[in-house]
Amino acid sequence: MATVHPTALVDARAELAADAAVGAYSTVGPDVTIGAGTVIGPHVVVTGRTTIGARNRIYQFASIGDIPQDRKYGGEPTALVIGDDNVIREYVSIHCGTAQDRGVTTLGNANWLLAYVHIAHDCVVGSHTTFSNNAQLAGHVVIEDWVTMGGFTGVHQFCRVGAHAMVAAGAIVLQDVPPFVTVAGYPAKPAGTNSEGLRRRGFPAGDIAAVRRAYKTLYRQGLTLDDARTALAEAATATPVIEPLVAFLAQSARGIVR
Questions:
Q1: What is the pLDDT of residues 59-91, one digit of tens each?
Q2: Is 156 marked active-site?
Q3: Which residue among 160, 176, 180, 226 is buried most deeply as judged by most CB within 10 Å?
Q4: Are residues 9 and 128 in the same domain?
């Protein structure tokens, strides 16, 4: 049976794994599912149609699964799905989706969300990301795997940030950020590749060099975006590490930071 502090309010219809825990003065709503080994700290609110996986740690004063901050929301049965092994620190807020989009906000596995992070409705956050304090996502944003969001960063609605990218502290993202790229400033502009992040994740030196060459093709050779896409697609046949970059550029709807 789950461990629930006597002062916590857990609805009888909520589903808690046998080894889940809920701390003092926390509230868990009727449509919430909490997986094995997940610990809900004190003074946390978990509400809405929220599913939380295994071994997550949610710290005090977080707000998880509440209705979206969207004027169009009319009480539709939308949802929030959180994966496994996430760390969600103090005052983090994550909202459910809207009927106008996917209807679900998604957080993957092994993410670190530090204090005051906000993930708005219909966002899709991958796995192994790090959000520093006060990183903020507007609605409908996609953050791919292994992204690092610096402190006090903001991402405009409908933007995408590609895998292994880094958004420097204080940056405001108004267009898509390609994989492997570091951006900085307001508005965010390209500032090189995330080579240090790739090195820490075990990318071979040859792959890191290939990413740097791809960055030069995209940003330093004076090519149009269409010409850069063509050149990178050709290069990817010999250097598969840049295939995610090629795919991302083909799918970008808002245009990329340049």
A1: 999 999 999 999 999 999 999 999 999 999 999
A2: no
A3: 180
A4: yes
